[in-house]
Amino acid sequence: MDVISPRTKYSRLRASREQATFNLMMRMSPAALAAVRNEFYIRGDEVTIDEFIYFMSKHLISQSKSEEITIDSQEQRDFASDMNELFKEVDMNGDGTLEWEEFTKFTVEKASLLNRRFALSGIPNYYDSSDMLDTSAKYRHRHDISHICHIPKMGCFAITEDHKKTIWILNARTGKSVATVKAGAVPLALEYIGDRDLLAVTCADMSMRTIVLDDPMPQKRFQVQNVWPTPDAQMSLVWMPSNQLLYSGSTNGNIYSWDIRKRTMVATLLGHTDIVMNLISLKKLDNLVSASLDSTIGVWDLYTNAMILKLEGHKKGVFCLSYNPDFRLLISSGFDHDAYVWSPFVNSLVYRLKGHHSSLVGCQCVDNSPEIITADSAGVFKVRGGCITYIRRTDCRGDKHTVTYKSHMYPLSYSYIALLTARKQHMMRF
Q1: pLDDT band at 27 (very low <50, low <70, confident <90, very high)
Q2: Which residues contact 324 (CB under 8 A, 6 or more apart)?
Q3: H or E element that contains 326
Q4: 314 and 166 inside one domain
């Protein structure tokens, strides 16, 4: 016969009691809870272990109205054993009787603990998968990676470097180079136009151009299609499928809409007083949202080109936006150490996501998920769930994960394959 140490014995006892608690939680319903409460009151709020096993089996296993309960099946015997262990754990004062207050306090605490445990276990495991890259994909960039643009139709993404006139198109699964595009000037913003298979680019020479991504004729792929001048440098881009217009955010604080077929400006949206660093579309609401270094966020009606909401709360400039269409919440980040959660329907702050100790470099709502990813200039990433609840902190200060984005850039781009970041040595990390 094996000798069991006290530690092993305690570990097994703890596991059996946790299983008993889990079984109780899984079977408990409002009606069963009301019936159990009534059983306590009938007995003068003092229940012995035999009485506890009896009425718990009656209301949670057999659900019979009869006063006589027989324990015949293996399920009933296991449940009775679990309730025996549960009674011993709940009876904190050890008087051999259980009171309703003891039972409810224990149930609430354990339910909260189990909820947190299941919530944590349900978080996807984000990890560095660079070792799985094709060896030819480990290109060492000389400068900081300034922009990442996901191209889902092709399973690729485009990146740019600071001070470089080149756009790299990389495979989203392997990181291998698909194409290299000479932009003619240093790119400032990228936007994928899926319904036209184009990549829109604004450049530092105050120009805008479109690049063909897919064409029946291979020689036309990844070639510059059109180039036209813009007023001032355009720092942000977004495509609106509803009206087939491209919107750009300027260094002068204005937002311009463009007809890319005619290469002409359609309208000017006035409202910001500093550089418009980011633009996103709320497709289901048919609204445009802008982030500016004037510390405000604008929500625009695309039919009237009027700002319908001006969200104020950031103390410093804002340069990153993300939207969760399921919860209809807008997330913003900037030079502040906190990310802000807004509703696009009301002119007030919903929640503030705290926890970072450095200026944020980006925020991103994960597609088809309640998760939010935030990153700061110190290289710390945080994954939060339920849109406003902190779940897990991932420290990325090590050499593998340290990011070196400048604060005015766009650091995060979530695709269905990977979360892309830049490494300290200017290499892509998956």
Answers
A1: low
A2: 330, 331, 365, 370, 372, 387
A3: none
A4: yes
Does one domain contain both 149 and 291? yes
- 1 or 221, which is more confident: 221
Q: Within 10 A of 55 (CB to CB), how many other CB atoms are there? A: 19
Locus of tokens 């070792």: 131
Q: How far apart are CA 238 and CA 245, in angstroms?
A: 9
Domain final residue, candidates 121, 147, 163: 121
Q: What tokens does 387 get?
A: 């849109």
- The C-alpha atoms of residue 291 and residue 279 are separated, in whole angstroms, by 7
Q: Compute CA distances 323 → 19, 22, 135, 261, 385, whole Å.
A: 40, 36, 35, 28, 14
- For residues 177 and 218, state if they share a domain: yes
Count how many domains the chain has. Answer: 2
pLDDT, one tens digit per residue, over 335-389 is: 999 999 998 887 888 888 988 888 998 899 888 888 889 988 888 888 876 433 3
Residue 208: both structure tokens together = 């805008």
| C-beta of residue 237 within 8 angstroms of C-beta of residue 247 | yes
Residue at a domain's end among 99, 121, 143:
121
| CATH number, position 61 | 1.10.238
Average pLDDT, stretch 196-201?
94
Q: Are residues 65 and 157 in the same domain?
A: no
Domain membership flag for residue 1:
no
**N-terminal to C-terminal alpha carbon distance within the chain:** 52
Same domain, 62 and 208: no
Q: How many CB atoms lie within 10 A of CB 104?
A: 15
Exposure letters 17-33 (e unless 16+ CB within 10 A, then b): bbebbebbeeebeeebe
**pTM tops 0.70, yes or no:** no
User: What is the edge-to-edge ordering of all strands in the sheet holding 234-240?
Assistant: 234-240, 245-250, 255-259, 264-269
Q: Which domain holds residue 30?
A: 6-121
**Token pair 């502040």 in the structure block, residue:** 336
CATH code, domain with 370:
2.130.10.10
Residue that the structure tokens 């290469």 belong to: 263
Nearest to 429 by CA among 416, 413, 408, 406: 413
Residue 14's H or E segment, with its range, is helix 6-27
